[in-house]
Amino acid sequence: MGGTGSGRRGGKISPKVRLEVWVRCGGRCVICNRNLLDGGMTARTLWLGELAHIVGRHDSTRSPRGKSALDHRESADNLMLVCADDHAEFDAPGALDVYTVSTLRELKRSHEDRIRHLTGLSEDRATTVLRMVGQVHGREVELSREAAMTAVVAAKRYPLFLESYSRHGIEIDLRHVLGESAGPTDMMSDPGERSHSYFRNATALIDDVIERQLKHGIVTNAVRHLSVFGFARLPLLVYLGSRLDDTVPTEIHQRQRHDESWCWQETAPVVDFTTRLDHAAPHDREEVVVLSISGTVNPEEIPAELRGLRRYQISPAGVPSAPDIIAHQGTLRNFIACVRSFLADLDAAPKTIRRLHVLPALPLSAAISLGRLHHQQVHPELAIYERLDGRYWRTLDITLSAGETKVGAARRPSFRSTGGIGGRVHHARGVARRGVYRRPGPP
Q: Tens of pLDDT along 12-71?
């Protein structure tokens, strides 16, 4: 066990070395990363860490990993900061074949490198983490605080889990929202109608978290950069994007299927995208865009009432659509540029387009980006469709309501959930995105 005693090859650990080890380890356990200055039961600052020897303190078989010719065993290079539980376990006789000298040295090196990296980042590299997780037709994934932190650190930022956000960042948990899963009585109605109550409840929850947490963080200047992680049904991801303020620099992350992480793959190919006119009907007040990115939307899947409208298709250039197509961050940037150009072209059309019907086959990050690119004051309202039971149903509208009160330079958008293709129901809360969450500027 680590201590302050002396042995044949070791001596007393000096206060200078103790301080060096604590600083290099960031006050955290090398094994489990526990904060060793934080008393969990008393909420007081307590010195809970222990200094453990990698090569044992004594050159003896009775000292864990002690048989070695190493001198200076009380140097900072041979000591690491650990909690009492981990210290007892890796020094136990039954664990010595697992926690070897080389294993402990690698753990120490990796931990100290991470602490050096994080503490070396300037303040402008801080980011507030926003996570939204829900079921997708009964399926859900783990989107933990640790997974988000790993992705943020890989992006050379450090996560800001503010105390006011319970050290978990901003979290929108849709997993317990009523209406996502169809019960026995729901099977008598069509899929679009079954989704109505779920979208109404889910969008209300998104609004509530954005208003109470994100808005407060922005206006108090606590949120200066945002890292967004989302796993939910596509219309809700678009909706979330539409609620994100465009004055705050934002990075949207993508879940990678091959390793289930949220880290960008630097070795993945960078894919470009192209827009083409798929059905050359005259410009009208309503038009259609098909987004065949993570999969292909076949012509026969397009609702009959939309087939006569002018229709565009956005798809990968030179490669087939695929679920993992957005693995490199450069691919997401190219998608954003393509959609931005497409929306600008619509704005320049000779006839004002009032509604754009969106049939999406999109990765998670692309859906959020689509919502964030849409500006309610400039672009046509979006009618978002979702593939349910083998066909596309209109499930959520993002639109402007005439006569709503202006907020700054922007009018309040109304978000409507729709039952299938039929009549629409206004969302209970009309909430503005842009012009509301402005951080204080210079006087």
A: 889 999 999 999 999 999 999 888 988 777 777 888 899 999 998 888 888 889 887 777
- 50-53/79-82 β-pairing: antiparallel
Contacts of 270 (CB under 8 A, 6+ apart): 328, 330, 331, 334
Q: What is the largest CA-CA distance in the chain?
A: 91
Written as six digits, the tokens of 156 are 């050379």
Residue 153 in tokens: 């650190």
Segments of 265-390 assigned E as strands = 273-279, 286-292, 311-316, 355-361, 381-388
Per-residue pLDDT reduced to its tens digit, 255-298: 998 888 999 999 999 999 999 999 999 999 999 999 999 999 99
User: Cα–Cα–Cα angle for 277, 281, 283, nearest 5°?
Assistant: 90
Residues with Cβ within 8 Å of 255's Cβ and at least 6 positions away in sequence, in order, are 141, 143, 229, 231, 261, 262, 364
Give me the amino acid identity at 30. Answer: V
Return the residue matching tokens 């009907």. 281
Q: Which of 211-220, 255-264, 304-313 is predicted least confidently?
A: 211-220
Contact (CB, 8 A) for 393 and 195? yes
- Name, in order, each residue with C-beta under 8 angstroms of 364's C-beta and a sequence gap of 6 or more: 230, 231, 237, 254, 255
pLDDT at residue 309 is higher than 90: yes
In the block, tokens 């809360």 appear at: 429
DSSP 119-186: HHS-GGGEEEEEEEE--BTTB-----HHHHHHHHHHTT-EEE--GGGTTS-EEEE-TT-TTSS--GGG
Torsion over CA: 172, 178, 182, 188 (sign): negative
Which has the closest alpha carbon to 398: 192, 180, 243, 171?
243
Give the residues across from 392 on adjacent strands.
Answer: 387
Percent of the chain past pLDDT 90, that is, above it, reads: 47
Name the phi and psi angles at 387, rounded to 5: -80, 115
Distance of alpha carbon 183 from alpha carbon 380, whole angstroms? 35
The Cα 333–Cα 89 span in angstroms is 47
The residue among 390, 417, 288 whose CA lies nearest residue 342 is 288
* Type and span of the H or E element at 407: strand 406-407
Token pair belonging to 441? 């500027």
Cα–Cα distance, 133 to 229 (Å, whole number): 8
- Would you report the helix, strand and coil content of the chain in percent, each value rounded to 5? 30, 20, 45
308-319: average pLDDT: 97
DSSP state at residue 226? E
Residue 84: per-residue pLDDT? 92
109, amino acid identity: R
Q: Which residue has the tokens 């991801």?
A: 237
